[in-house]
Amino acid sequence: MNATVTLAPHGPQHMRALERANKVRLARAELKRRVAMGSVEVATVILECPWEAHSMAVADLLMSQRRWGQTRCRKFLSQIPMSEKKTIGSMTDRQRRTLAVLLNASQRGRAWSAGPWVTDTLTRA
Predict the structure, then answer these.
(1) 6 in a domain, yes or no?
(2) Tally of CA atoms within 13 A in the half-sphere of 68 that contains its CB
(3) Residue of 92, 115, 81 lying closest to 46 (CA atoms)
(4) What is the CATH classification number for the domain harbouring 107?
(5) What is the pLDDT of residues 89-100, one digit of tens each?
């Protein structure tokens, strides 16, 4: 009989999982630092969805901005039907574009007046 044996690469599975989790945690911390400093915009992160933000909650990313807390984040996300726990990687293209447009408008001071009818027309353009 010819039986093939597959060898586990680089040690036990739980150690590889810990290494991966640590790598993701460090990359997310760096991404949050860059967002807080203003060198990376949240709208860009949402549209591009880098690997470190793929399983990150939208609220975590929004609250990493200066002057964004839980209340502001909740009010902002209430403009579109989206949960705070929604992961960035699971968002549809339409949700990404809508959120990016609203974020860009909020930086210019116009997002709080945007109703749901406004967000529908913004995403169709």
Answers:
(1) no
(2) 22
(3) 92
(4) 1.10.8.50
(5) 999 999 999 999
| Amino acid 39: pLDDT | 95
Structure tokens at 48: 């591009």
Q: How far apart are the C-alpha atoms of 104 and 84, rounded to whole Å?
A: 19
81 found inside a domain: yes
Q: Convert the pLDDT of each residue in 51-86 to its tens digit.
A: 999 999 999 999 999 999 999 999 999 988 899 999
The answer as to whether 2 is a domain residue is no
Helix (H, G, I), strand (E, B) or coil at 57: strand
Q: pLDDT by residue (tens digit) across 23-51?
A: 999 999 999 999 999 999 999 999 999 99
Report which DSSP code applies to 87. Answer: B
Alpha-carbon span 2 to 23, nearest angstrom: 39
How many domains are contained in the chain?
1
pTM for this structure? 0.75
Tokens 């116009």 label which residue?
110
Cα angle at 100 between 30 and 58, to 5 degrees? Answer: 50
In a domain, 7, yes or no: no
Residue 68 domain boundaries: 13-124
